[in-house]
Amino acid sequence: MDFLQACIMANREIYFLLNNGENLRLECKKGYGGDISLKADLEAEAIFIKYLQKFGRIYSEESGIIGVDGDDNSIIIIDPLDGSKNFALNIPCFGSSVTLKKNGETACAVIANFAAGYICIKEKNYFERRFFVDKKAQKIVSTPLCGVGIFEKAYQSDQLAAKLRQASFKYRVFGALALSLSLSHEVDFVLFEGNIREFDVAAGWYMSEDLFRFRNDNFLLVSKDKGIFDKIRDFIVESSL
Q1: Are 115 and 93 in contact (CB under 8 A)?
Q2: Which of 11, 65, 155, 236 is most buried, taking the most CB atoms under 10 A from its CB?
Q3: R_g (Cα) of the chain, nearest Å
Q4: Nearest-10 Cα torsion for 132, 136, 140, 146
Q5: In tens digits, what is the pLDDT along the chain, a chain of 241 residues?
Q6: Global pTM value
Q7: Which domains does the chain show, CATH number per domain?
């Protein structure tokens, strides 16, 4: 079984777990990433370990570095349940993200949207959306401007949120950064302000490599439109002064 097929099988098993498991919303312990892990987080992590540990060391939001088996030059970065707070509150926006890096370079990324029942797969020039139930796969390409972006952690923003409001930018806050980045070809922009963790952005950053991108210690911006990108990047620079 190759890595991509293992990812698909792991995500499929988690998808059915989240729809049929018991007591998955129970809070368990603080995870490696600093958030309180749900039972769902830990069970999803266990499924990923089962399928992926033979391909290299795993770096997980829940447990940090896991295992030493497999290829020493490979590391697999996972967020077993992206948007677990949404899952706990029955808000239909949660998924997972997996990134395979070999010798420091990203080789493959998979982001699942469990609420919508599909996964996005990026490997070299191959980028598509597959559904868990039988449905034709869709190639992912940039769509025309839609008039709305995504601004994760906007509720923590001060100056930047005000600048976007004054410039009449419309946006949504989903509470699941990996899922938001997987939509970057379809929305006008994806913006994040705050502490950037590799678990949250590794897969989505790779999926958006053909778009306009900016990233520093406190901000991340992706857009398919250079005009929008330049304007928001200017706002970021002004907010950082």
Answers
A1: yes
A2: 11
A3: 17
A4: -90
A5: 599 999 999 999 999 999 998 899 988 887 777 788 899 999 999 999 999 999 999 999 888 888 765 556 889 999 999 999 999 999 999 999 999 999 989 999 999 999 999 999 999 888 999 998 777 789 998 999 999 999 999 999 989 999 999 999 999 999 999 999 999 999 999 999 999 999 899 999 999 999 999 999 899 999 999 999 999 999 999 988 6
A6: 0.93
A7: 3-139 (3.30.540.10), 149-240 (3.40.190.80)
